[in-house]
Amino acid sequence: MKAETITVTFWDHLSEWSLLALVGLLPIFFLPLTTAPLESNRQFLLLLLVVVGLLSYLMKVFNTSALSYPRGPLALAVLGLVLVTSLSALTSRSPWLSLGGYLEQADSLLVVVLSALVFFLVSVVVNHGGESALKRLSLAFLAGVGLAVLLGLLSAFKLYIFPWVWAKQPSFNLVGSTLSWVILSALVLILLLSWIFSLKSKLAWSNAYLWPSLLGVVCLGAVAIVNYPPLWLTIGTVLLVLAATQLVLTSKVKSVLVLVIGLALFLGLIGDRWSSKVLLSPEPRPSFFQTLQVATGSWGWTRWFLGTGPATFGQNYLPYRPALEWSLADGNFRFHQGFSFWTTILSTLGLGGFLVWLW
How far apart (Å, rounded) are the C-alpha atoms in residues 73 and 77? Predict the structure, then answer.
C-alpha cells in the first residue's frame, strides 16, 4: 500500500510539474535558429508538456482506478468548443491545414485540443492540490509573463540582451507585436489591481506581495510608455465594474481604488496629447467590413454553421476578398487572420463556433 501511495504521489507531482513548466516557459520560450522562432516552437513545447501531463494523469488513473474530471458550465463550454472545432475540421476545405495550421497558426484544431487538455489538467491538479497548487501555478505564470514584459520593456529602450540581429529591434518582444505586448501588460496589470483591491483586509506589506508588486510596476511601465488611450480606458472601466461590485456587496469602496479609476479614465480621455516613447507600428490586417465580406462569401449555403475549417482564413481571403483589393495588392498576398479574433471565427468556424466562443 505504501509503494502504491508513493507511485500515485509521483504521478500527481509529475502532472503539476509539467503544468508549472508549461505556464512558466510558454510566455518566454523560443528557439532562435529556426524558421518560426516563436509560433512553431511554442506549439511544440505545448504539445510536449501536455502529453507528459496527460500520461501522468492516465498513470494515476491506472493505479487508483479513480477517474476525476472537471464539471460545470465552463467545462461544458470547453467540451462544446472542441466538438464544434473538430466537426469544422472534418468538413474543412483544407483538412491538413485545419488539423495543425502548419504549427504556425494558433486557431488550428491541434491548438484548441491542447488548450482544452491544459484546462482539464489544471482543473484536476487544482482539485487535488487545492489552493496551494493554484498559487504555485499562478506564480509560475506571472513569473513567465513578467519576464516577457520586462524584456519587451528593455527592448523599447534599446537595451538588447539577445545577440541576434533580428532581436535587436525596438519592436522585438517575446509576445509578438508591440500592441500584443502592451495588451498583455494591461491584462496582467488589471488582474493584479483587481486582486489587490478585492482583498477584504488592508494590504500590509510583506514578502508575499513583493513579487506581484514588482510585476505590477513593470506592467504599468509598459502601459505608460506606450500610452495607448484605449488601454487606459479599459483598465479604468474594469476597475469601475469592480468598484460597483464592492459597493453593492459591502456598501463601501476603497478610496485608493476610486483614485486609480479616475487616473486611468483621465489618461484614457486625454492621454493621446502626450507623445509616446514607443510608437505602435501599424499591423496590416483587413478592415472589419472586409473580414465580414470574406466570412459571408466563404459560407455559401452549406458552411454558414461550421465555417470553412480552423486556420483557413488565409485560404478564404484570396477568393472572397473585396474586388477593390485585387488592384491594390499583390495577387498572391493573403491575410491569415481577419480584423479581429471574433470576425475571423465567423469565417473559419461559422456561426456555430462563434456562439460556442460567446458561451
Answer: 6
